[in-house]
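Subject: sequence -> structure tokens, single chain

Hey, anyone have a minute? Need the predicted structure for the following. Not urgent.
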Amino acid sequence: MSSQFYDVIIVGAGLAGSYAAYELASSGYRVAVLEQKSAPGLDSCCTGIISTECFNAFGISPEIIRAKVNSVRLFSPSGRCLRLESEKVQAYVIDRASLDQAIARKAQASGAHYFLSSRATDIIVEKDKAKVEVWHLGSREMFTSRAMILANGFKPKLPQKLGLGKIKNFLIGAQAEVEAHNIGEIEIYFGREIAPGSFAWLVPTSANKALAGLLSTSQAKLSLEKFLLGSFCRDRMVTEEVEIRQKTIPLGALPRTYGDRLLVIGDAAGQVKPTTGGGIYLGHLGAKMAVEVLHRALENDDLAAAQLSRYQKEWKAKMGREISLGYRARQLYGRLSDKRIDKIFNMLDSGGMAEALLNSPNFSFDWHSKLILTVLKYNLTNPLQRVWRSFTGRLNND
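Reply:
Had a minute. Here:
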């Protein structure tokens, strides 16, 4: 099959890549998907928490839903608990591997060809075609197409080689599925001793299982091991032996997400919420916009960078400010001491402020910028006042 000439080759069979493959194949294009793993979704490191709207957009069976979410317990560094609850279901915890596989099956049913255990090692863009070098089971193959989509996650080498720049900042996510009891709803833990500059979580997936994980700038696996042995988890774990998986999560956008005959989507493009590290929703939006731009370019047989640059303009108009503001909010949070975080908890817990924010029109599971600004405006007491002024000053210069 590598000898065939495709309309589009997609590198990566994650959600963004497979959704783009499904849309393009459904429109009659010859599509090849190259995936370095032996199956889509294999060894995924993701909590699988997505909004109900996001889940419905995929149009797949509800069988992959592991839990429904309408409440969460937040723990401050000192151990204070703040519980938030909504009357309606806000999100689902889905089986991420099953979601990846379901979208891949839809793409294949529409005509997309999948090549598994196929690692892309080089991309060469020529005047009339794009080529990708692939290593498959120890042998080298070359695939050729009219256009290429890079959707292989946060792997900086290929974008840099193609002159697209580099995402300089990132987090490490570590997660394990554990056997546990007395975990009835999502629990989020804050504090420098647990996850410096970020947070840890326990997400129930069944009556006696949960996902335990955290985000960190370094040593995420070690931090997770300490968290599992700590006071919040120790007495609830059935077994201490767990398999910890890790994932690198980009913070900020790739400088260029287009080139001649080339588009970049999903984690590879930096289409990730900096606040939570979640990339399902923004990656889905990026894939949809990429398909629309590429469809017009293929129809007009104009695949030059000038034509494909519309993709970056459109996705940045939709989510660029969200990513930028979320990244700066994360920077601001990283500067807070545990004492300051505890004071914020006190503020949120007083006078029903947390419930008011949860039920306000500014609350959105998928879009965090309005809620971030609302919370920051409530924190205009010293020393956050000085940080807030600096923060908004940089935003106004964007």
